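Title: Prediction job returns without error message
Component: structure pipeline
Severity: low
Priority: P3
Assignee: unassigned

Description:
Job completed but the reporter wants confirmation the result is attached to the right record. Sequence as submitted:
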Amino acid sequence: MKEPLLASTVPANDENDGIVAVPSRSAAAFSTLPAPTTGTIVKLGEGRLNSSATLANFVGEVQVREGEFALTGVGQIGNAKTAHATVMVFDGASFVTATESGSKLAQYVEFTIIGEGHNGKGAIRDESAVAAGNFFNGGKWTLAGDAMVCTHNEERMGIDESAVIDLAGHTLTLTGDLENKKVYFLIGKVAVKNPPVGDAIVVRDVRLLLQSGEECTFEGSAANVLKFEGPSSSLRLYWNRAKCLPWTVDCYDGMQIIADGKYDYDEYDGTDDYFMGPFYLRGTTKVGSNTKSFIGQGLNLRGYVYGPGGLTVSTSSDDYNSSLMLDCPTNAFEGPVTITGRPYADSTGATRYSSLILNAN
């Protein structure tokens, strides 16, 4: 087996710092010459290496041992299901996407990650400048220890298209660090596997979107926790997408949950946005909808709801109203339920209102 092809570590600077690449290639040259298609690339040194060359046809391994390895320009890594790249991000290092193209940043790439990244900026970090979805499609994220993924993009970052997140018994933290701006992280057609007991995914200062219905799956039970922290965190559901989650959802005081079905009254198919797992309310949790709903449609909490907090049911838009259904007969949350929102005339001319439905059997 060939050893990684090491180049000498160049002096640290903001642009390029230390790389293992093809023979005789300096760190500076790596950004401009055609990228390798095989072999092992190893990032060394505490600085940042910017690679503007595409790695779309690269089927070797990238080892980010120190500092930051950044895809820039129109860079992309991977594009094939059968022969794909692997990326190992070591504790204290970061794999960064900072491209100008957006969209599919990593295709069918298998990542192994650990730690909070270089200077706490995330083991995987998206800094892409484009205001569009930036996605890691297909492939797999495997945690070798507790790890953090961070978005610094004003639109959204996500993982989708039959990808796998293997927590391997560790905690994944999803976070955003754009001050005073709300950023999104999307989990689409993804299988989340091997969660730890307790905090499995922590959402901190980022809006989490769940979508893709039955194609988004979470292994586990109420013993596993989806925990929300920070004043900018919220949970948003697209088109009946919450059925997949059996975990406990831990809500901070003031958190917002939005069911974003966007189907009209006469398009209702009888399937609500619902959660199977428990909800823990630390304070007031706001439940809203972007759905032109009628009674029986909206958000359905089928699991046990408990804690010192309460619920506020309110519309998130003047064009929609909200409804909340509580199914569990043994709910034990201590706070009040408040219903707000203005009447709305749906497409049939009927007047609709925000509502609370108790369906405990």
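Comment from assignee: result matches the submitted record. The two ends are 63 Å apart (CA to CA).
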